[in-house]
């Protein structure tokens, strides 16, 4: 996530950490690099200026210079200031009073509004609610079709009208339909803007007046940086948003939008999206995000993601097998297959402490397919007996498996080592002190 920024910050702090005691000059040097890293990530310059000033002030106030671990302390302060800039607390989606939850999605053309509508519909469905998607983008013929396709994909009804009529009329009829079919979570997709003109502002205001939305989410495309942030502020001034969703926070975006939008608009970031798959929607937690930017990982989000994908029962099952040391190569295979469902491996590694570096060592984006295919082939070339008792795998068996899977004995050895590491890690996670507590906290 935000690879370039993350790399630069980690590099800066590694240098600071290795120097033992630091002088005020060292601190300023490091802060200068932080400033450059943020500006290069396209963070709003005022936000950067204040950010660096606050970190400096706190660092001097806390006598970091006299500390024996100054690097660690500066990282702690930077982390804390990042959390502050990102909004400090997690803000959940608002709950409607008695009536249905109504979400109005607005923002720039191509920013990911329609996709977000589909993602939210899916999320509501998973929560056991009955969503209805509403199309009001008549500018492009393909736009309502796109929403219909998404609706089919997540099995949610879509309200679309044939003729171009005022959006507010469409929405009025859609609300009647919602009542008729008992929908209780209505997601309204809208036409996008390149710049916000009066016509669109009026159109959206009329829709908002008509339905009184629970949430008005302004979509901000992370790829377009400060431009998107400025547009978000325009939208907020015109129709008063309740929150922001930053899209396309995939690994190669610079990140300036995420780090500026809260300070510039005053609106909380409620979600981020990190890929084209519908599942790539994450609730936004400032502290977790800051940890990911600084390469400290985000185990909580990883566990939540696993729980979403695997379901509670599977998680408990696996956890039990891990605890009792029964975890074998068959489980390992199943787990890899489930990980594939969870989305790109490089994204998952971002959530582990130091995982970003690991992803790079393993070969970055091309890693996923090759890695999974090869590992699957190797395990599938083993007999059931061998999968359950990896100790049986002597040299001649390994050669046979390599032949059968079109790999080399070295590949087989590598996989077995990974399996051993995974097993060790899991036992530490389930029985060890720190992470064991984490698992208990999660009820596993
Ligand atoms: P709209 O014009 O605002 O409705 O935008 P769309 O929902 O049609 O999305 C525009 C493009 O952005 C589509 O190709 C989406 O697949 C893509 N997209 C949306 N969200 C993300 C994301 O989080 N990551 C990436 N990489 N692409 C995304
Ligand atoms: Mg659209």
What does this molecule look like?
- With about 450 residues, the chain is of the alpha/beta class.
- It has 3 domains: about 5-85, SRP54, nucleotide-binding domain (Four Helix Bundle (Hemerythrin (Met), subunit A)), CATH 1.20.120.140; about 100-285, Rossmann fold, CATH 3.40.50; about 300-440, Signal recognition particle, SRP54 subunit, M-domain (434 Repressor (Amino-terminal Domain)).
- It is about 60% helix and about 10% strand.
- The protein has an 8-stranded mixed sheet, with helices on both faces.
- The radius of gyration is 25 Å and the shape is flat.
CATH architecture of the largest domain: 3-Layer(aba) Sandwich
In the CATH scheme, the class of the largest domain would be Alpha Beta
**Number of DSSP-assigned strands:** 8
Present as ligands are:
guanosine-5'-diphosphate, magnesium ion
Averaged pLDDT: 85
**DSSP strand (E) fraction?**
5-15%
Please give the share of residues in helix.
Answer: 55-70%
The H-and-E topology, N to C, reads as HHHHEHEHEHEHEHEHEEHHHHHHHHHHH
Largest sheet: 8 strands, mixed
Q: Helix count, per DSSP?
A: 21
* Number of self-contained structural domains: 3
Overall morphology: flat
Assembly category: single chain
Return residue spans where pLDDT drops below 50 for at least 5 consecutive residues: 432-444
Cα Rg: 25 Å
The fold-level CATH name of the largest domain is Rossmann fold
Structural class: alpha/beta
């Amino acid at each position: 996530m935000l690879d370039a920024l993350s790399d630069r910050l980690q590099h800066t702090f590694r240098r600071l950490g290795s120097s033992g005691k630091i002088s005020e000059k060292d601190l300023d040097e490091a802060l200068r690099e932080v400033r450059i890293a943020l500006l290069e990530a396209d963070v709003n310059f005022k936000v950067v200026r204040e950010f660096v000033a606050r970190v400096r002030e706190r660092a001097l106030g806390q006598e970091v210079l006299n500390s024996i671990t100054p690097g660690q302390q500066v990282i702690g302060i930077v982390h804390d200031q990042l959390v502050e800039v990102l909004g400090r607390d997690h803000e959940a989606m608002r709950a409607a009073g008695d009536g249905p939850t109504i979400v109005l999605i607005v923002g720039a053309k191509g920013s990911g509004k329609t996709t977000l509508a589909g993602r939210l519909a899916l999320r509501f469905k998973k929560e056991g609610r009955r969503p209805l998607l509403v199309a009001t983008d008549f500018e492009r013929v393909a736009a309502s079709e796109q929403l219909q396709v998404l609706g089919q994909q997540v099995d949610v009804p879509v309200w679309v009208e044939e003729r171009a009529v005022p959006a507010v009329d469409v929405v009025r009829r859609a609300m009647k339909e919602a009542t008729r079919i008992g929908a209780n979570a209505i997601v309204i997709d809208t036409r996008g803007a390149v710049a916000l003109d009066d016509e669109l502002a009026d159109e959206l205001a009329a829709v908002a007046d008509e339905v009184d939305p629970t949430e008005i989410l302004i979509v901000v495309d992370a790829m377009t940086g400060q431009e998107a942030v400025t547009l978000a502020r325009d939208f907020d001034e015109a129709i008063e948003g309740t929150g922001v969703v930053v899209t396309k926070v995939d690994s190669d975006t610079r990140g300036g939008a995420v780090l500026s939008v809260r300070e510039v608009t005053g609106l909380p970031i409620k979600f981020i999206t990190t890929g084209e798959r519908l599942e790539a929607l994450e609730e936004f937690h400032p502290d977790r995000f800051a940890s990911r930017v600084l390469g400290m990982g985000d185990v909580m989000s990883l566990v939540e993601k696993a729980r979403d994908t695997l379901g509670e029962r599977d998680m408990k099952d696996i956890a039990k097998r891990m605890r009792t040391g029964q975890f074998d190569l068959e489980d390992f295979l199943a787990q890899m297959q489930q990980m594939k469902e969870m989305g790109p491996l490089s994204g998952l590694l971002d959530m582990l402490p130091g995982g970003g570096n690991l992803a790079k060592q393993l070969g970055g984006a091309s890693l996923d397919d090759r890695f999974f295919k090869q590992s699957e082939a190797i395990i599938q070339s083993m007999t059931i007996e061998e999968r359950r008792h990896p100790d049986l795998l002597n040299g001649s068996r390994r050669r046979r498996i390599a032949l059968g899977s079109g790999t080399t004995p070295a590949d087989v050895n590598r996989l077995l080592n990974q399996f051993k590491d995974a097993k060790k890690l899991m036992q530490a996670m389930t029985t060890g002190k720190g992470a064991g507590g984490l698992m208990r906290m999660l009820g596993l």
